[in-house]
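forwarding from the other thread:

> can someone predict this with iron/sulfur cluster?

sure thing
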Amino acid sequence: MTTETIQIGKREEHAEEIKHLKPAVDPATLSHRDLLGGDFWRKIPAYKDVDGTTFLDHKFQMRNTITRVDKLLSAVQDLVPESFYEDVADGFRRSPMSVRVSPYLLSLIDWDNPYEDPLRKQFIPVGSKLLPDHPKLTLDSLGEQEDAPTPGLTHRYRDKALFLTLDTCPVYCRFCTRSYAVGIDTEDVEKVSLKAKGNRWEQAFQYISERPELEDIVISGGDAYNLRAAQIRLIGETLLNMPNIRRIRFATKGPAVMPQKLLTDHDWVRELTWVAEHGRKLHKEVVVHTHFNHPNEITEITRNAMNTLYERGIIIRNQSVLQRGVNDTVREMRELVRRLSYCNVQPYYVYAHDLVSGVEDLRTTIQTGMDIEKRVRGDVAGFNTPTFVCDAPGGGGKRQIHSFEHYDRSTGISVYTSPAVKGGFFLYFDPVDTLDEENQARWANPQERQPMVDSALEQARANMKDAARASSIDTSDADGPVH
Ligand SMILES: *Cc1c(COP(=O)(O)O)cnc(C)c1O
Ligand code: SF4
């Protein structure tokens, strides 16, 4: 008898003794492992003759991004009816945000049902679905410019800062929080990214080096994908060599919308890897933060791209935005979280949709966020469970979605405080069309708006008084910014 048979024999014996307390899961619940592969792009008329090598080339993806409605028409051709193009043309005209879609994303949209498709909803506006903005909406709702000591550097939290290095992205998302800055120039990405350098970066570097409390820098944009390889290295090396800096993150939506770059832009991956290794030698953390919103964005190509980074020891975390009709169901959010975990991407945050112009159809209520959070937590490992947050309008920073002082579900007003960041109250507003008729009518009347806000604030103050009575901590010197 060989050792192998003995082991098999033992295992069989053992197997009889094991008592399964629960039935094994239905294989259908493991669908997060079924990643789309093959040449799925060939069903798009414009790409029907495109071979795998070409489609995997990031230069092909960049060159063929779609920025105009006529280009969309020439790519998708007769997959959708004429009326749909008219609706898209209307959507393009009325959207404040530039449009830019990669061939990869375009190929992942279900053109048999474009109105319902979760990717179409995020990137291609249709006029017929647009809703009026919330009356309380302002551009730069997060107040990023207010907290910027030098242009493009937001220093809001004590030990970390957000460095907007450039203003372009590989694609443009309808729902971009930074529509105040991003996507102005849609024609020549390289030129703009060069323009982004120079004196503005010098000023940011100088400020960061002069602030001993800063340990953590988010390198964003726009999108770090559009930084050239040499710029990745320049920024990474400069920051890591500052004694105060302990952690940097490159923030990019790229892996979600153009994973090809990680497979074929060898210079870029090499320089990113160099920065990560340089950081490791200095005992400093270098990670990538990305932005997947829907399980359909994750394919075999994505997994290969994520493996490329993982093999190089680079940790990838994900930040999603909760969006109506995209990922606002338990089923879709669980699938997203499982699929990301499966590809070694750690789900980090799910944001309540910021108050951004032109995308009211994509926002959900705070209640929806809480309901989904409750049903996602516990499904996978804790470190792969995203924290659901609301980035408090007005510069309060990210707050756990359920940590409001008061939430009036009928007017849709939630009131947050942010004791470690900034004094005062921060208000978030549910989309008006989700409220009942009476409250919709109140928002329609300008005279009614302030009383609704005042009443929510009053209730928040009363709740806080009750909470303080019950609390044992001394907050006398712990409230207000810790700068
Ligand atoms: C989100 C954000 C950060 C990073 O915050 P984390 O909670 O650590 O991810 C830093 N600065 C600004 C202005 C931000 O918006
Ligand atoms: S990739 Fe990020 S910064 Fe660029 S448009 Fe999308 S959300 Fe905005």
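The chain has three domains: 43-129, 153-400, 404-483. thats all i got for now
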